[in-house]
Amino acid sequence: MKITKFIAGKISRKYLIKLSKIYCFFTSIIYRGGSYYCPICKGSFRKFLPYGAKNWRDGRLCPGCLSLERHRLLWLYIEKKTDILVENQKILHIAPEQCFYKVFRKSHNLKYITADLESPLADVKMDIIHMPFENESFDKIICNHVLEHITDDKKAMQEIYRTLKSGGLAILEVPLDFNREVTLEDEAINTPDLRKKHYWAHDHVRLYGRDYLEKLTQTGFIPVCDEIFTEFDEKEIKRMGLIKKKLLIFKKPEKSGV
Ligand SMILES: [Zn+2]
Hints:
single chain; 258 residues; alpha/beta; 2 domains; two-stranded antiparallel sheet; 11 strands; 33% helix; binds zinc ion
């Protein structure tokens, strides 16, 4: 039963990726227009599409690359405030988002490695708490919306830190309740329904609070959380369909001189 479910899950995920490419081909034509602009696929559209498992809302999904508000915001940071698209470097992308994958894969300056336990987009099948890489292997590590699924998130953070080069950047977005001081993690919250109610999704194992930054600091990281949305006016924010949030980005300190 478990095996059948496992195989079915894999097939549907592969199919979903193929189907989404066909879907995007048509929606990018159908919704072509001048009102909205996606900084990732550089497409102009007459609308962004509705999306949301919990809160179904219009104006979220890009018809060209299926990016959401948070993806487009992060992309602007990557484009404007990092050297990812310019300098030769090695990047590890854990649980790769499809909208970024295509652009990174085509970037000739990148040695781009994707990793995941199951994703068909992954070059390396791996468990994040036992990463099969040498110390200081990557200039950047991107790992978005993963840690809230990992029981031993402390070990995962340590693995990301270990495999990142000194001075390197880790982009570690998670669902974070900024109204909450301390992360909610309770053994009694142990069913899909309870998890959805308290942790925002049926497969999350905690809801991070503001102490998420401390957890990363304790691992050794320096928070460089960025508010790039403040650099755009309301008209641009609406046109690109951005969310106004702090980006959760962390730096591994440079090696101190010996
Ligand atoms: Zn797009």
